[in-house]
């Protein structure tokens, strides 16, 4: 096949859950920035600290991906604008052709142990139910390779932005790569999930992988072993966009002033598709663990009463609100209270981070880095292979890396 020299410079961004709110904002955002409709506000990778890295230009990122739903970007963008008013009606009219072009690179996703709520969204359920894990892996790899060849891309970064899965038994997952390969070949569906198979498929094929979802995926030992074997960078898990971002910035203050936090209660309400999925306790289990563990790690206090809950409020659509109540003790054992409210658009908060991660991960792959990219910890609630949870310290890890390069 004759390759286009211009497109050879481009990099693919393969989004798992491509028709969700986050992915829709990624596609509309990249196209809108290129057309001058939106600023680059919210993109960490556009900060001066990272200019010297030579990150892939925003205009050289081509989006493809997969989804289990039968829809299109124009429909999803219009629904998002009607519900959340974050894209702009006039902008959507201008972006129609860009959204339509992106649809050409979206294909059918896989489903395994994702939960009843996610499966209700799915089209063509019967075919997915009978497909064996090894066939799922082969299909995912074929889809990504076809995308790369069709668009003449020099690399493809795979990012999982799909809804939280119900599968949450990390102890049941094969721990070694050898055991995982046997489980896939033997059709042991009970110890596998879509998130695990997506990570395995991408990394086995040599593509960098980011687990932006709260689902079990690339952070399990078997996949980490695979990444080292294949020389592929990866990172996860669970994008840090809202309440946990504030927590990990604020909690070090209490620790530094030697205040004793007695209890920290967080109540989250949101109304988009992720909120609907997280209304099922099986899908919410891992998400809630991720949000709670970050706080416990920073304060290093096993006695702290840390409670987190997530409620689905349909009328909020893509907007989410988190109310946090902090009860702490200071000098003279005086008990005091701090409260804060965080409100934001779920998709608009997450989308720029996905773009950032794609750019940083492409840089890592281009420079021969492999395994967990720990310097990217500031983007995640539960960063793979990183114990540090303070947002300031995590961000310092990223800027120090940029200085060395």
Report on the structure:
It contains 14 helices and eleven strands. It is of the alpha/beta class and about 400 residues long. The chain has two domains: about 5-240 and about 350-405, NAD(P)-binding Rossmann-like Domain (Rossmann fold, 3-Layer(aba) Sandwich); about 245-345, Dihydrodipicolinate Reductase, domain 2. It has a seven-stranded parallel β-sheet, sandwiched between helices. The chain has a four-stranded mixed β-sheet with strand order 8-7-9-10. Strand 1, helix 1 and strand 2 form a beta-alpha-beta unit. The chain is globular. Mean pLDDT is about 90; it is low at about 1-5.
Short description:
With 405 residues, this protein is an alpha/beta fold. Helices cover 43% and strands 18% of the residues. The protein has a seven-stranded parallel sheet with strand order 3-2-1-4-5-6-11, sandwiched between helices. Strands 8-7-9-10 form a four-stranded mixed sheet.
- Written as H for each helix and E for each strand, in order along the chain, the element string is EHEHHEHHHEHHEHEHEHHEEEHEH
Within the largest sheet, what's the order of strands? 3-2-1-4-5-6-11
> Any idea what the radius of gyration is?
21 Å
Q: What is the level-2 CATH architecture name of the largest domain?
A: 3-Layer(aba) Sandwich
Helix content: 40-55%
Roughly what fraction of the amino acids lie in strands?
15-25%
How far apart are the termini? 36 Å
Number of strands: 11
> Any idea of the CATH class of the largest domain?
Alpha Beta
What can be said about the biggest beta sheet? 7 strands, parallel
According to CATH, what is the topology of the largest domain? Rossmann fold
What global shape is seen? globular
Which structural class do you get from the secondary structure elements? alpha/beta
CATH level-four homologous superfamily name of the largest domain: NAD(P)-binding Rossmann-like Domain
Count of discrete structural domains:
2
Unreliable segments (pLDDT under 50, ≥5 consecutive)? 1-6
The overall pLDDT average reads 91
Tally of individual helices: 14
